Amino acid sequence: MNTNAKAQERKNYINGQFSGSSKQFTKVSPVDGSVVALVHEADRAQVDAAVQAARLALKGHWGRMSLQDRVEMLRAIAGGIERRFDDFVAAEVADTGKPVALASHLDIPRGAANFRVFADIVRTYGMDSYFLDTPDGKGAVNYAMRKPLGVVGVIAPWNLPLLLLTWKLAPALACGNCVVAKPSEETPSTATLLAEVMNEVGVPPGVYNVVHGFGPNSAGEFITSHPGVDAITFTGESATGSAIMKAVAPGVKPISFELGGKNPGIVFADCDFDAAVAGMANAIFSNCGQVCLAPERVYVERPIFERFVAGLKQKAEAYVIGWPSDAKTNMGPLISKQHREKVLSYYALAKEEGATVVSGGGVPTFGDARDSGCYVQPTLWTGLPEDSRTVKEEIFGPCAHIAPFDDEEQAIAMANNSRYGLAATVWTTNLSRGHRVAQAMECGIAWVNCWFLRDLRTPFGGAKLSGIGREGGLHSLNFYSEPTNVCIKL
Ligand code: NAD
Q1: Helices then strands (H, E): number in the chain?
Q2: What angle is formed at CA 103 by the lines to CA 280 and CA 19, rounded to 5 degrees?
Q3: How far lies 8's CA from each of 36, 41, 213, 447, in Å?
Q4: Torsions phi, psi of 173, nearest 5?
Q5: End-to-end CA, the chain
Q6: Which uninterrupted H or E stretch holds 221?
Q7: Cβ distance 264 to 253 under 8 Å?
Q8: Residue 432: exposed, middle, or buried by beta-carbon count in 10 A (0-12, 13-18, 19+)?
Q9: Which of the listed residues 107, 164, 235, 257 should we mutate to test ligand 1's pocket, taking the one with most ligand atoms within 8 A of CB?
Q10: Whose CA is nearest to atom 13 of ligand 1?
Q11: CA-CA distance, 456 to 479, in Å (whole number)?
Q12: CB-CB contact of 296 with 456 (8 Å)
């Protein structure tokens, strides 16, 4: 294993101070296997200290801060991220290996945007009020007030580290909560840089705490089982969501879960063919397929099936897999050796299950340090039965199975035949069909003629195994606050 001369220490951030731990683990680059960070793993006492700091901050300056001042603080955090944009891009790229272009255009700008958007949203939405008629004719006035939930545990995954952390952190802070955050063990860096930004812009100690570590018997479990944590918001695998549900059950705490997916893409013969091929390729392969919303099941209307498969194959084979810093690179590695083993096990399984490999199916070779990285080829299959494991289970890699359908009803049935229900994308130029099919999808988000287009005010989340609850806009405020209804008899 190489040790990168620039390997960073990533410490916990508790009560406004960076704090080391007696136990550390290394974070390895998925590009070439070099060590990019030495991460301090928080023990139970450190997680407890983070929770206590958050509780104190709730009672202190943060709890007493006016909404206007809190909103200004959120904007200052966004500005702080933007001022250190290059540091954030470098840290995200070092941890994930994703192309610099992707981190620069998506991850880091959205990280800053999340703070600005929720600063606006929390100032925009009030709560309902009602006048109630009473038998004496004088009536009563009801109005509801939002209060913070308290201390929120934020547990984030590795695929879009800053983007997904701040998607939960920003509304939690906007609503006046304090946070104990745990980034993924695979991506400890941008959450730690964010702590530096919080320090720089004057966020009071204890409002944002970062603890590093793993799930079971580590920081993740210490947060979810801590009696001083009032709510848990989590993005990650469905099986992890289930384990967290068990951990929080004794405290009957609010949970918000954004979980896995096995998303369908439906392509009708009347689509704008070139736009559909390009749009589906982007949806399948972006971020090396490590996007919860990516379609791993593609259904194409039979008259254009062969042509569409050929079009997707051409796109897959045009991907430039390479160094993140190379401007031509549009596909990086998977996140880790362990994840690559999982994805490659599905590449093998697909063949065992009888798939025709249309494209890829293996590992690229470079003849340099990248051969020690976690790269795989973008991969397409056809010919599998709908009940095969490859078509049923989330792989989370740059791959998809493509199957033909004969009519709209069949396409809807095939798309909905899943235990997951996160997202769908539908391609058609028939407006009525677009609405009809999108509305029939058993999932949280249905796109027509696009993918990943997000207005951050809209509800985001999944049905079935893909999650519990919705976040985004007012939906986030509803999760991160506890309303009290006040009823005044006149
Ligand atoms: P993961 O579930 O393995 O880990 C997510 C986080 O949970 C990490 O920080 C991990 O350390 C922590 N964790 C693991 N076990 C825990 C436990 N028992 N208690 C507390 N914390 C625990 O997920 P991942 O591999 O990091 O991310 C990939 C998964 O996330 C995929 O399934 C993907 O679909 C899903 N995802 C969903 C969305 C969404 O919005 N629905 C977005 C991104 C990713």
Answers
A1: 17, 23
A2: 135
A3: 6, 14, 16, 40
A4: -70, -40
A5: 74
A6: helix 219-224
A7: no
A8: exposed
A9: 235
A10: 215
A11: 15
A12: no
Give the DSSP H or E segment for 443.
none
- Model-wide pTM > 0.85: yes
Any ligand 1 atom below 6 A from CB of 243: yes
Please report how many Cα atoms fall inside a 13 Å half-sphere around the Cα of residue 316, on the Cβ side: 25
> Residue written as tokens 């919705």?
470
Q: Which residues have C-beta within 8 Å of that of residue 295, sequence separation ≥ 6?
A: 263, 264, 265, 280, 283, 284, 400, 423, 424, 425, 451
220 lines ligand 1 (CB under 6 A): yes
- Cβ atoms of 482 and 148 within 8 Å: the answer is yes
Per the listing, tokens 């293996």 go with 362
Query: What domains does the chain contain, in order, with CATH numbers?
Result: 8-259+466-489 (3.40.605.10), 263-455 (3.40.309.10)
Determine the pLDDT at residue 1.
42
56 φ, ψ (degrees, to nearest 5): -65, -40
**Residue to mutate (ligand 1; options 39, 96, 114, 237; most atoms within 8 A of CB):** 237
Specify the amino acid at residue 225. S
Structure letter (DSSP) for residue 475: H
Looking at residue 236, its pLDDT comes to 98
Q: Are 206 and 53 in contact (CB under 8 A)?
A: yes
Mean pLDDT by 10 residues, the chain (490 residues): 68 98 98 98 98 97 94 98 98 98 98 98 94 98 96 98 98 98 98 98 98 98 98 98 97 97 98 98 98 98 98 98 97 98 98 98 98 98 98 98 98 98 98 98 98 97 98 97 97
Tokens of 23: 């136990």
Please state, in angstroms and rounded to a whole number, the distance separating the CA atoms of residues 262 and 415.
10
What is the per-residue pLDDT for 197? 98
C-alpha span between 98 and 332 (Å, rounded): 5
Give the span between the Cα atoms of 443 and 463, in whole angstroms: 5
CA distance 388 to 4: 42
CA neighbor of 399 nearest in space, from 263, 268, 235, 259: 263
Run of H or E residues at 325: none
Ligand 1 pocket, 393 CB below 6 A?
Answer: no
Determine the 3-state secondary structure of 327 from DSSP: coil
Amino acid present at 263: N
In degrees, rounded to 5, the angle at the alpha carbon of residue 178 between the alpha carbons of residues 174 and 179 is 105
Rg (CA), the chain: 23
Using a 6 Å cutoff on CB, does residue 461 contact ligand 1? no
